[in-house]
């Protein structure tokens, strides 16, 4: 059973798995095709979440919880991949993918999709390779989320 592609209802970032072995092709602050620095968090998606939850309070609370749980969530995923525990790795990576997309972390969610695909194929060699990029993407996503959304105002 494959997961649906990741996009926001406003178009968001086209979602598809990153190339095998890639930790995401756009580095921090690197220009994108449009010449603007790449964002780790898509504010349009956070605005959609606020609209769905009838205001910013619940959305900020969700984002705050997401950021607070990042280390725990990643540690659980890393342990499952290193142990080659397919059910636990799938549970952890799907949770990470979905919650990342909900807070606008589309780049992180796309990378999580690549890891999910590797785990589904029992390709834990590829899974191990993707962990470092996933960790970096996660830290940068949480940092941007905190600076530009959670602690904004």
Structure report:
Helix 2 (56-82) packs antiparallel against helix 3 (86-102). This protein is 63% helix and 0% strand. The radius of gyration is 15 Å and the shape is elongated. With 153 residues, the chain is an all-alpha fold. It is built from five helices and no strands. The relative contact order is 0.19.
Which secondary structure elements does this structure contain, and how are they paired or packed?
Blueprint: H1 43-52, H2 56-82, H3 86-102, H4 106-120, H5 124-150
Helix pairs in contact: 1-2, 2-3, 2-5, 3-4, 4-5
Distance between the termini: 42 Å
- Structural class per helix/strand content? mainly alpha
- Count of helical stretches: 5
Binned, the helix content reads: 55-70%
CA-based shape: elongated
Order of helices and strands: HHHHH
Q: What is the overall pLDDT average?
A: 83
Largest sheet: none
Enumerate the spans where pLDDT stays under 50 for 5 or more consecutive residues.
Answer: 1-33
The portion of residues forming beta strands comes to under 5%
Tell me the radius of gyration. 15 Å
Number of strands: 0
Main attributes of the structure:
5 helices, mainly alpha, about 150 residues, elongated, about 0% strand
Briefly, what is this?
By secondary structure, the chain is mainly α.
């Amino acid at each position: 059973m494959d997961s649906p592609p990741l996009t926001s209802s406003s178009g968001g970032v086209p979602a598809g798995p990153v190339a095998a072995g890639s930790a995401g092709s756009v580095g921090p602050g690197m220009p994108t095709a449009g010449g603007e620095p790449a964002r780790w968090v898509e504010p349009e998606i956070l605005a959609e979440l606020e609209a769905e939850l009838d205001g910013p309070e619940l959305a900020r609370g969700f984002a705050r919880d997401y950021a607070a749980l990042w280390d725990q969530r990643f540690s659980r995923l890393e342990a499952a991949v290193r142990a080659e525990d397919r059910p636990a790795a799938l549970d952890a990576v799907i949770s990470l993918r979905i919650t990342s997309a909900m807070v606008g972390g589309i780049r992180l969610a796309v990378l999580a999709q690549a890891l999910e695909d590797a785990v589904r194929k029992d390709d834990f060699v590829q899974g191990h390779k993707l962990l470092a990029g996933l960790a970096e993407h996660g830290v940068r996503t949480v940092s941007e989320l905190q600076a530009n959304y959670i602690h904004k105002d």
